[in-house]
Design brief:
Four Helix Bundle (Hemerythrin (Met), subunit A), 248 residues, 3-stranded antiparallel β-sheet, 10 helices, Arc Repressor Mutant, subunit A, elongated
């Protein structure tokens, strides 16, 4: 029988302190260093190590002074994205891998959204479709991106999947570092063709969701992501070739 790995005093104290923080409203005074020594039944040095660990996790904030102490808090999505992004960089993760993962997560989210209450789906579909139909083919990439973010929020809200959204955002944020896009190149036939293709793909996604058919919604989501990623890679390739030509 495999031996169970023994947890250190700091790990055990961290488990207890994490539970205490999460059981209390954000901003609650958890206690002073002295009180935590008693409450966690550990040494002062262990409390300090544990506090530093939970600070890095975004669950604890230390305030000095007369009204100071250890206060419970919650990590923000930005903090988590930054931490995970740094970890992905350390692992030398390929931006193409995170792009593929983001697509898989988007498909899951759209499929889940298609199973929401029909009245909620219809409200989102009508609202998004109006914005899509009013999008001019000469709209800048930034304008399209703004609308895409709005659609993402609507879909994740329907899907009731904050965890999937978080991991999706982490992957997208990391991928964006590897597919940086130039400010120019928002005019011409290629860009107009992209705007039209993306708009039609998103309308297809909306209609598939409205039908309540999660399989169809998944296929439509896969297609809309392909249109989006192809354009990002195209823009990135253009930027790279221009830099190479200029000797940068």
């Amino acid at each position: 029988m495999a031996k169970t790995k023994r947890r250190t005093a700091t790990q055990q104290a961290a488990d207890r302190l994490r539970a205490i923080v999460l059981d209390a409203p954000e901003g609650t005074l958890i206690g002073s260093e002295d009180s935590l020594v008693t409450r966690l039944e550990c040494s002062r040095s262990t409390v300090r190590q544990t506090a530093r660990l939970l600070e890095r996790e975004g669950l604890l904030k230390v305030r000095r002074g007369i009204n100071g102490g250890y206060f419970g808090t919650r990590p923000t999505a930005e903090t988590i994205e930054s931490t995970l992004g740094a970890h992905l960089e350390a692992l030398n993760v390929d931006g193409n891998d995170t792009t593929t993962m983001a697509t898989a997560l988007w498909v899951v989210a759209v499929r889940a959204a298609s199973n929401a209450e029909s009245s909620q789906i219809r409200s989102v579909v009508d609202r998004v479709s109006r914005k899509l139909k009013s999008l001019d083919e000469n709209a800048s990439f930034a304008k399209v991106r703004e609308l895409d973010l709005m659609i993402q929020n609507e879909i994740f809200s329907l899907a009731h999947s904050p965890y999937i959204k978080l991991i999706f955002d982490v992957n997208v944020t990391f991928s964006r570092r590897h597919f940086s896009m130039p400010a120019e190149n928002d005019s011409g036939p290629a860009h107009a063709a992209f705007v039209n293709s993306w708009r039609e793909a998103k309308l297809m996604e909306m209609n598939a969701m409205a039908s309540g058919n999660e399989n169809l919604a998944g296929v439509a989501a896969q297609h809309s992501r392909k249109v989006w990623i192809d354009r990002i890679k195209q823009r990135h390739a253009v930027m790279a070739s221009e830099a190479k030509a200029s000797g940068a």
